[in-house]
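Lecture 7 notes: from sequence to structure.

We start with a single chain of 275 residues. Read the sequence below before looking at the structure.
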Amino acid sequence: MVRIVTDSSSDIPAEIARELKICVVPMYVRFGTEVYRDGVDLETEEFYQKLVTSRTVPTTSAPKMKDFAEAYERLSEETDEIVSIHLSSTFSSAYEIALRASGRVKKDCRIEVIDSKTAAMGLGLLVIAAAKQAQKGQKMQQIVKMVKEAAPRARVYVCFETLEYLRRGGRIGKAESLLGSPIKVHPIVGLEGGEIKPVGRERSRNRALDRLCSLAADAPNVSSVAIEQGAAAGEADRLHSRLAALLPGKDIYSSAVGSAVAVHTGPRVVGVCLL
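Now the structure, written as tokens:
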């Protein structure tokens, strides 16, 4: 069976990763001299506490080459075909490092490394789709073809409490136009084709959540949906109920924004990811 690998920026729930046999290589989060493996050494709730209370601005970094190489070597004992799908190269060196690591595997194992051009559960939905195809016995070239064709159609829309974390991490891109409002607003930012773009801003949180619902309901040919939240579980639950009614029969996953992504989003974010 083809095995699927990704990095922890995909925010795939642990139970889904176990069920679909997805290998998740952790990113790193740093608070000064303290270094944590995303999803391994730092629980999500603990991370948000540190994010708000720490005087140190946290940073993230991609997995090391040895992390990917060890994962590939381990999986090469079970399979001779691996598809490795990663965070957009616009935001991280994870794709490039994985590509270099794939050439270090000693066993005869084909490894295809793919730049998803997306992040968070936009990436996660691609990985889940690939893993489901692998479990059905689909051939490697067909899985690769499906992922590369689906990747440009992945969409991520996020309602932020503040864009300050995105700005200070250098990831804000064209969404900078949403900064600087003289009144309290709730900005919505989109990620499409590897680029962060402004979607709009709403005067109230409820109206911002309404906008997320509309973006999902109006998207054409939706095959799967994920709702992500960072310290906003109640709002995510309400959004899930609404989208289940608007998109009957669709797979709707629920996910927490992991620390590698939350460094750049901050707390109280709610997002809708679509494939």
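The first helix runs from residue 14 to 19. Keep this in mind for problem set 3.
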